[in-house]
């Protein structure tokens, strides 16, 4: 179900922080729903006119290195005290997407935002398992975000025919993978990135 959110400027790096609201009796999940409805617009000044609002097309929680207690000892220590690692919330709009980190304190931080057309699929890629014979070409740029949007980085490929990989550390695009037919979905684990196309499935090494 689509909902509306004030239109916001494009940025590839994060930085916007939304302060938590007064404590209520809401559950953690209810607090996230409230975040979608009320808190996201706080990050931007002024009240845009109604025609400037954009629709939220999809919302998804993501498990990634950023909130994996097995990979981050500081989260493991916090987790052992009864608190939870931050939620990673991905929001798809009619003209782009955002990634938010929402810790238990409720002080949400924007990690990534892009506004170059609707996004069909997006995944945060886990750091790969590397053997002694292989190396990770993107080790200094991770975590990476894979995005399939209507307009690729080159601007010349057909709609939804490329996967752009962005660094959540620097905000830059580090690689663009082009295909001849539209992409329908992305899946990934520590070994491969799977690109679901109309006529086939392409599996790429995570490194």
Features:
single chain, 207 residues, mainly beta, Methylamine Dehydrogenase, Chain H, 6-stranded antiparallel beta sheet, 4-stranded antiparallel beta sheet, 10% helix, globular, BCAS3 WD40 domain-containing protein, BCAS3_WD40, BCAS3-like
Task: Summarize the helices and strands and which ones pair or pack.
Blueprint: E1 3-6, E2 17-18, H1 28-39, E3 53-62, H2 73-80, E4 87-93, E5 96-102, E6 108-114, E7 119-125, E8 144-149, E9 162-167, E10 173-178, E11 183-188, E12 192-197, E13 201-205
Antiparallel strand pairs: 1-3, 2-6, 3-4, 4-5, 5-6, 7-8, 8-9, 9-10, 11-12, 12-13
* CATH architectural name: 7 Propeller
Q: Describe the largest sheet.
A: 6 strands, antiparallel
One letter per element, helices H and strands E, the order comes to: EEHEHEEEEEEEEEE
The CATH topology annotation reads as Methylamine Dehydrogenase, Chain H
For the record, what is the CATH homologous superfamily label?
Answer: YVTN repeat-like/Quinoprotein amine dehydrogenase
Question: What is the rounded distance between the termini?
Answer: 36 Å
Cα gyration radius (Å): 18 Å
Number of helices: 2
Q: Look at the helices and sheets and give the structural class.
A: mainly beta
Average pLDDT value? 77
Which blocks of ≥5 consecutive residues have pLDDT under 50? Answer: 78-82
Quaternary: single chain
Proportion of β residues? 35-45%
What proportion of the residues is helical, as a percent range? under 10%
Task: Give the domain tally.
Answer: 1
Principal-axes shape call = globular
Name of the level-1 CATH class = Mainly Beta
Strand order in space, largest sheet: 1-3-4-5-6-2
Number of strands: 13
């Amino acid at each position: 179900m689509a909902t509306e959110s004030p239109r916001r400027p494009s940025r590839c790096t994060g930085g916007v922080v939304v302060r938590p609201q007064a404590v209520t009796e809401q559950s953690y999940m209810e607090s996230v729903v409230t975040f979608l409805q009320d808190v996201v617009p706080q990050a931007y000044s002024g009240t845009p006119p109604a025609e400037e609002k954009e629709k939220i097309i999809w919302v998804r929680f993501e498990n990634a290195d950023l909130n994996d207690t097995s990979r981050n000892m500081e989260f493991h220590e916090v987790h052992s005290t009864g608190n939870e690692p931050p939620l990673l919330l991905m929001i798809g709009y009619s003209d782009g997407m955002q990634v938010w980190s929402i810790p238990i304190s409720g002080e949400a931080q924007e990690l990534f935002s892009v506004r170059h057309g609707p996004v069909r699929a997006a995944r945060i890629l886990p750091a790969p398992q590397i053997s002694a014979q292989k190396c990770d070409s993107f080790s200094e740029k991770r975590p990476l975000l894979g995005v399939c949007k209507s307009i690729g980085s080159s601007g010349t490929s057909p709609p939804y025919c490329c996967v752009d990989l962005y660094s959540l550390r620097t905000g830059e695009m580090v690689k663009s993978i082009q295909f001849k037919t539209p992409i329908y979905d992305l899946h990934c684990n520590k070994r491969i990135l799977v690109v679901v196309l109309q006529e086939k499935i392409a599996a790429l090494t995570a490194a």
